[in-house]
Amino acid sequence: MLTIDWFAERDPRSSTPAVVNINSGRDPSIPAVAQQLTDHLDHLEQDVFVRRSHDVAGRDAVLPPPFDDRLWNRPPLHGVVLRGELAEWSFDAIGWLAEVVADSAAQLDVRSPLVLTVTRTLATG
Asked: Which of 40, 55, 75, 101 is the one with CA 20 to 30 A from 83?
């Protein structure tokens, strides 16, 4: 949250719809705190990621990691999918979001390794 000022000068037209998948693998800790996690993210004073909806997600909703998934608590069985607007499609915005999600999960006592996937989506409406 301390780097939120990085996004103060952005072009408001640069926001993009995005889907964020947070997965705790075999550990059901992320779905167990899904509502608390989304409530926490919603109450942060930020507009880098504005959540529109969320769903608890199982294996069918998850893209397989693009790496050897023996590095974490595989397979991706337990997750939460957040849908919303990302301030911009950049490594900075995605990295900021990953740090805020990780910190929020840690504050909720999630101790499992997580895989976070951010996907740009087409605007609807």
From this structure: 75
What are phi and psi for residue 96, nearest 5 degrees? -60, -45
Number of domains, the chain: 1
**Which tens digit of pLDDT belongs to each residue from 39-96?**
999 999 888 999 999 998 766 666 666 666 677 777 778 899 999 999 999 999 999 9
Q: Measured between alpha carbons, how far is 6 from 123 in angstroms, rounded to an integer?
A: 24
Look at residue 112 and tell me if it is in a domain: yes
DSSP assignment of 25-63 equals TT-THHHHTHHHHHHHHHHSS--SEEEEEEEEE-GGG-P
Q: What pTM, to 2 d.p., does this model score? A: 0.85
